[in-house]
Amino acid sequence: MGSGRTLKFALCEVLQFAGLCVPLFIVMQRFAVIVAKVKTSVQPPRDGSTAYWLIVASSIAYVTSTALLVWVPMKYMVFVKKKFFIGRKKWRPVALVYVIVSTLPCFAFLIASSEIQINNNMTYDTFTELPVSLVLFSLICIDVVERIRHCRLTGHANDMERDADIPSTVLTHVEPVTPVSPITPAGPGPPVPGQAGQNPMQPGSGQRNDRNQNGPGARSEANGTLPGIQGNPGRPFSISGLSSRSASTSVYHISPYEYTGPLRFLCASDARADVFVDSFMFWMDTVEMVRVAGNPLVYYSGWVFPIYIFSYLSCLRVVVMPHSPLLPSLGVALQDFPFFFVRVGLIAIFGFVTPILYLIKNLLVCLAFVYFNFMTKLRVFNTERMFF
């Protein structure tokens, strides 16, 4: 058992360290190639090998110093000095450090490579596929490892592993519903306790209160939840992240779909596998926005700056824990709202370089967030007589 945990711990650390180093090496190597091409194309031509190896050596020195001065001490504080990060159950220090020391330099060199080629009238490299995909894939791997490292990788997932970090398709928390007392018919007889002096049809009666609280006609709250049903969600449902919602751990486990036919093996579901789906879907909008920057018309223009800047800001959402209630607000503020205006500008200037679907998605997410979280609390929308 101890060797298995040690092997899993070593595997997670190797994957995270590779995600830290490999994107930096690839992006800075491509940047060094562009600088060397610029040096050899100027008049009179210069030797570009010196600049190339200087940038490569600088990248090696940066990764080494970052690993020794930032990454290793941070890991030591997380796993040994746990009291140093008192509130780390609400945020992820590993993801924060990665976004600062790896994703930020990569995006900065992508912008610098574009500016160098624009200033020297070159169209050599647009970083179309490998470097950009590698940066975002490493960010996804960091997210997956942070969420799945506390789960065992063999056997079935037990109840303790269905925590707030793992999404689940199983309803795991059921509150008992208070039964509704039957209405006593009119006639002589002893009064029913709790109903003396009350008309069942009056607003203050116990039957009316029970129906409003736990009956089938219960009115949902402004945030979409029903009173009397509580849960500690996993990654809150956020259309901006295209992520699933999970329930809290409890003693009840009721599957919404129970099929016992010959094809029941197709109903297989595991929360650990859902982590990979949830993590990739969480980044689809950011991936599409960064992909637009690879278009030659966009890459050799000033629109590279807002694209990469707002894409980096959207990456900061990974710092918040998946079960944090701040995640929907951050998704709208850091992703959907700025992405909407960037896409409107791109379509107005360059045409349909970005799909209309994502533009509609950003608009509807922003409108739905404002309406259901703020406007439904206004008096004009807060009435029980509407939409029954």
Automatic annotation (TrEMBL):
It comes from Champsocephalus esox. Residues 178-233 are annotated as: Disordered. The keyword Transmembrane helix applies. The chain crosses the membrane at residues 7-31, 51-72, 93-114, 126-145, 297-320, 340-372. It comes from the Eukaryota. Residues 201-215 have a biased composition (Polar residues). InterPro entries: Uncharacterised_FAM23-like_TM. PANTHER family: TRANSMEMBRANE PROTEIN 236 (PTHR31453:SF2). This is Transmembrane protein 236. Keywords: Membrane, Transmembrane, Transmembrane helix.
